[in-house]
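Collaborator request, handled under Task 6.
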Amino acid sequence: MSEPCCCSCQEAIKGVRLRCIECTDFDLCLQCFSCGAEVGTHRKEHDYRLHESNDFPLFDTKQCNWSAAGQSNWSAADEVLLLDAVEQYGFGNWQDTAARIQTKDGDQSKDHFEKYYIHGNIGQLTFDKPFINKVTDHTTEDDSGPLSPSITMPLPPLEISIQEKQELGYMPYRDDFEIEYDNQAESSLSSLMILYDDEEIDKDYKLAQVGMYRERLHERVRRKHIAREYNLISQATSLYNKQKQQQGTKKKYSREEREFRDKMRTFAQFHSPIEHDKYFENLTKEKQIKSRIKELMRYRKNGITKLEECSEFDEERSRREKKKIIKKKMSSPPQLKRTSMNSIRAEGLDISSLSDTSSGGEKYEPKAKKRSKQSRHLSSLPGNDLLTDRERKLCNSIGMSPGNYLTIKTCIIKDYLQRRQGHQVKFRYPSGFDKTHRRKIMSFLTNNGWIETDSAYA
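Structure tokens returned to the collaborator:
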């Protein structure tokens, strides 16, 4: 089809053109229309209509169907959309086809396609013979088709509990299991498709695959019938429950027995499960018999010839062992409590004054002697005259120098006063300060009224 020409400049119009409504077959290009061109009886005041390059009918306009709403007829753009939609959605899906065109409904699309592309000149030149629907129904109930529903007739649902259904993966509404017999049978037909350009041998091959799939479905249904007829599913569930109970009451083995079983696991390939368990039972019995023989040989070695005397021998033996343990504890020297270097420095004691028991310097002294020596040592330290009698007793009991005690006491009282004023302050202690000494000092200050009880251990 030739391109339209402008009636003013006689140039071919590409793209949008303007057609005069009052004049017949009068087209103008955009340039001539903008200049206000007037040719013959055409005037620039005439009404006009915009036309695109594909906004023209492909078929005779007298034979085209006009919509009841007065919409435009089928243009070339509508024809392209119609053919694309039929190719994409398939012949007969007129609702999706109309949604693709957007300006026509499903009935208009169907009538137009059948009139011009099937029964019209295009259809007559395309199809040599009259169009015959070759689609055959393979879902008849007389079991004649390969996809007949009689192949998989529904069976009565199983009468089992909900827990058993979940364990077996049974779906009662579909009468199927999550894993069926020959569960991958459908995969042979998942990508099967008969195309219009297939040869006869290809079609026969694909139909043979459908036949094989039908036989596999028959076998699946046959096995289901056998399982229902002989009540195999309920028996399997009862057996599974028994095995589960046996596993729940299974004996717990010790670490040595587990390691031994792991070593002997290689022999499981030569035994059945019952034989393998019996094998371990026999090994356990052998081990017990050997240990009993050793025990009886020990009794005989100690001159015991009767079983009644064995219990008395065991009691006397346990008593002797207990006496040995007690004697060993009494003979061992007492272990002195270890003190860290940080706590020694925090208490203000002289490191050189500590005895080194490991080097064999001083001997062990009683606690009363140590306390008297320590009190005499603390009384000679500076700051002792600033303490009360109770504070001196406290320093003697915890072994702290008066100077360190006064420093810690000053920090605690300062922090307490700041907290009373509303400041969020934590009590400060020297690094490495013993917790027991800290509690004693805090309780002493609380009992003597230096600080209150509610904030003493905050």
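The cover message to the collaborator said: "The CA atoms of residues 115 and 292 lie 104 Å apart. The two ends are 99 Å apart (CA to CA). Please let us know whether this matches your experimental observations."
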